[in-house]
Amino acid sequence: MTEENVFFEENKKNLNFIEVFVEKDLAEGKNNGQVQTRFPPEPNGYLHIGHAKAICIDFGIAQKYGGICNLRFDDTNPTKEDTEYVDAILEDIRWLGFRWENVYYASDYFRQLWDFAVELIKADKAYIDEQSSEQIAQQKGTPTQAGMHSPFRNRPVEESLTLFQKMNSGEIPEGAMVLRAKIDMASPNMHFRDPIIYRVVHTPHHRTGADWKAYPMYDFAHGQSDYFEGVTHSICTLEFEVHRPLYDWFIDELKKIHPEDGAYRPRQFEFNRLSLTYTIMSKRKLLQLVKEGLVSGWDDPRMPTLCGLRRRGYTPASIHKFIDKIGYTKFDGIIDYALLEHSIREDLNAKAKRVSAVLDPVKLIITNYPKGKTEMMEAVNNPEDESTGTHEIAFTRELFIEREDFMEEAPKKYFRLTPGQEVRLKNAYIIRCTGFKKDEEENVIEIYAEYDPQTKSGMPESNRKVKGTLHWVSVEHSISAEVRLYDRLFLVENPGEGKDTDFRDQLNPESLKILSNCRLEKELADVVPFENFQFQRLGYFNVDPDSTKEKPVFNRTVSLKDSWSRIIKNEKE
């Protein structure tokens, strides 16, 4: 084994397979030792968590090896694209912490692509076909049976050139003709069977307006755009692996026209795309959810879009942690949604401030505590990070606790509040329940308790052990807030799986609960959108952009523990 091979074998353990290829190219001096990548989204929707995986490898490779990564919008289909999506994509990439070297558009190369297509026609390697899309599909054959030649395949070059010009002048109706590359109708690779490289679209383009009527197909525009920009490593997902020979064929033909570029050529590498349980990634289906009002918009916190995850409270660091955990391979699979939730718990546990919030309040009156007295109790901001210090929370005679933390008649192992039982109020005193009051509908409206003044947190007597600890807020010193409890959008692991299955029938009716009368400690009176907190005992929450000074709104990012795993386990048992 050569010294070079030994080097790569030793380093494979710490590199993903794409990094191994890049380091090998650098060692061999390919492309003059340059590394240039690109992230090429189509601006026909909002980016989702699957795109984040592509963003991390495209930008990450460039950063790691001192190269550059450009952002290139694949805007070759004006019927689906919009500047709204362009702006959203720019914002999402910035949010993830990446910066592009340049912003390009496939439409920047419309003239160069057109000229290349003309050269292919002149070389008798492309022709105008006037068959319908159905006829062309029927003639393609099958993977085991060769296709049939189009009756227009041997059309004279000059005739194809004239018709190609008419395709772009507006004289040709949509669907009336296409430009096809003349390759091999017997190739075992179906993509080589005279692929369509131009079609007619009369919809105005979001950048070029009505200048063009003939638009390049993705397979024709993608590799050539890489070539024009100087991309060295064109990284995409596994479904494009079978497209790679066609990618290379077009590059080879283009290099014949540009021999001055010497040894330079882009190379395509493919990795496994991201699929998550309880989630759909199809832009078409996500658009359906938005248009049909099944979610509030692209940034609905139940959506897998990056703007939806951001609004829900996910952080860039948590997305990076998640992508690092799943890695890059050559094998498709489905990732458990719980791993994404684990990543945000891990991130927020280390840095989120701990605060008190009562989501379903019931009044607790400490009958032996002096009326009008207010004590300021010290609360640790984050036990994982001592440098974050503490803050004070007001303690008074009348408090709010969670309704579920009291039972009139409790089972033996119930360690919360019930008549005659003691619990600790976090950061405060031990109390014993002495009674309660109900309304006419038998709902508990007040709970009564007495406190032991010698059990204040930090005092010697405070070490007396009780089995339950409850969170609370002061009635007088708390604020009102709306809290939105978000959960997984779908009830099944693989939504839409099955021929006759409609993914919309599998939506989780409990994916959003809105609580409008929650009470929060005053520490949260001056929050700003997207701030993250841990509501003690309840989960991680963040401030929604809908918040106002008068009515703050919080979204549950994730619960403290994975409750779905327990539910699934119980169902299986």
How much of the sequence is in beta strands?
A: 15-25%
Gyration radius, rounded: 31 Å
The CA-CA distance between the termini, in Å, is: 54 Å
Task: Assign the structural class, choosing from mainly alpha, mainly beta, alpha/beta, alpha+beta, or little secondary structure.
Answer: alpha/beta
In the predicted model, the low-confidence regions spanning at least 5 consecutive residues are none
Mean pLDDT over the residues? 93
Helix content: 25-40%
Shape: elongated
Explained architecture:
This protein is an alpha/beta fold. It is 28% helix and 22% strand. The chain is built from 14 helices and 25 strands. The strands form 6 sheets. It has a 7-stranded mixed sheet with strand order 10-23-24-25-21-22-11, covered by helices on one side. Strands 19-16-17-18-12-15-20 form a 7-stranded mixed sheet, with no helix packed on it. β16 (422-425) and β17 form a beta hairpin. α8 (218-229) packs across α9 (244-257) and α12 (316-326) packs across α13.
